[in-house]
Design brief:
The complex is a heterodimer.
Chain A (H helix, E strand, L loop, with lengths): L3 E4 L2 E4 L5 E7 L5 E7 L5 E9 L2 E4 L6 E3 L9 E3 L8 E8 L8 E3 L3 E5 L1
Parallel strand pairs in A: 2-11
Antiparallel strand pairs in A: 1-3, 3-8, 4-5, 4-9, 5-6, 7-8, 9-10, 9-11
Chain B lengths: L4 E3 L2 E5 L4 E6 L6 E7 L6 E6 L5 E4 L2 E5 L5 E6 L8 E8 L8 E2 L3 E6 L1
Parallel strand pairs in B: 2-11
Antiparallel strand pairs in B: 1-3, 3-8, 4-5, 4-9, 6-7, 7-8, 9-10, 9-11
Classes of the chains: A mainly beta, B mainly beta.
Chain lengths: ~110, ~110
């Protein structure tokens, strides 16, 4: 099991450029999440998905889009990159079993928008 | 909205000392989770708590789910240099909402 994998590990974008952050999990988890973490801060939820074809907004969705066409993949799209989107992005997945749930995280994508 | 108050914000201790940190909230939760984040890495789950009053250990780590369901603590005994990192608490409520609520983290430094 590779767990949750994210690509790329690091990226520099110019203002206005677009990119897709990839996230894949091989644990057959139904739930997947995208978070951003700013320096010295906790995690803020961007979007989440409870299953293929279902997505919903989190705390800070503006400027981002997601899709969930398969159970394994949950890409995050930035259409017009802005300096405020400079952050570390973490993808996570979880499976609810008998009311118990834990989220497992990928290694993160570090994004710098200049 | 719901929020978790995690304290202390940071700690600097000597190797071998015990550490205690906690999270509190005005809301009730069904799940409490404790994560550790090493520099440049994603958070890694340390302990998961699913029942009020539950006390769970993972090696030198012990965590408890508060009986009121509004708080949790994490203890680390006999700290070692590799305990350095940021520790986050997170909690999940009883509804179908899958959103974890996160604390802001406790940064731990250990002096060898």
């Amino acid at each position: 099991n590779a767990g949750v994998t994210q690509t790329p590990k690091f990226r520099i974008l110019k203002i206005g450029q677009s990119m897709t952050l990839q996230c894949t999990q091989d644990m057959n988890h139904n739930y997947m999440y995208w978070y951003r973490q700013d320096p010295g801060m906790g995690l803020k939820l961007i979007y989440y998905s409870v299953g293929a074809g279902i997505t919903d907004k989190g705390e800070v969705p503006n400027g981002y889009n997601v899709s969930r066409s398969t159970t394994e993949d949950f890409p995050l799209r930035l259409e017009l990159a802005a300096p405020s989107q400079t952050s570390v992005y973490f993808c996570a997945s979880s499976r609810r079993h008998q009311s118990q749930e834990t989220q497992y995280f990928g290694p993160g994508t570090r994004l710098l928008v200049l | 909205g719901q929020q978790l108050n995690q304290s202390p914000q940071s700690m600097f201790i000597q190797e071998g000392e015990d550490v205690s940190m906690n999270c509190t909230s005005s809301s009730i939760f069904n799940t409490w989770l404790w994560y550790k984040q090493d520099p440049g890495e994603g958070p890694v789950l340390l302990i998961a708590l699913y029942k009020a009053g539950e006390l769970t250990s993972n090696g030198r780590l012990t965590a408890q789910f508060g009986i009121t369901r509004k708080d949790s603590f994490l203890n680390i005994s006999a700290s070692i240099p590799s305990d350095v990192g940021i520790y986050f608490c997170a909690a999940l409520n009883a509804g179908n909402n899958r959103k974890l609520i996160w604390g802001l983290g406790t940064s731990l430094a250990v002096n060898p």
